[in-house]
Design a protein that fits this description.
186 residues; alpha+beta; three-stranded antiparallel sheet; 2 helices
Amino acid sequence: MKDPFKMPFRFRQKDATLGFTLVELMIATAIVGLVLAGAVTTVNIWGRSSMSLGNYAEMSGSCRRSLDVFAYDVRMANGVSVSSSSTFTFTAYDDTGTGTASVTYSYDTVGKTLTRTYDGVSRIILENVEKFGFSYFDLNRNATTDALSVKVVQIEAVLLKTVLSVANTDEIISARFMLRNREVSV
């Protein structure tokens, strides 16, 4: 009688050649490991690039909004009382054009913020400011420190934002604004 559990000879030989050797498995595992390491590195670099792009977009937008507010205030200025490298205080016509309001822009080196104070109400308009400075010029575009002769204000700032150990900088260079309503003599 035939053994029902015994396979015919032709099937036994074929099954013996179907497996992988240990060396083949190790090589395949190493190749898969290298491919996975490359994929993880690529995703990591892509993620950091996306974070950097988001940082630049956010910094650019906040700079643009802050400069718009600053430009509006400075162009309405009719008197300057304090002009230092980190603080600029002036009076400006209010929104009605009939009254005046006291406006102060000040840079906080500890908090790294630029604050706008309009008639006693303070609001942070720029954050993550690494370096900041106001420069002042007279009617002939000569640098001045005299508050009575200020006609042009230049604002310079370097912003630094770090997210997930990715540091991005966005620099505002030479944004100058003229005090249109300010009368000064040459």
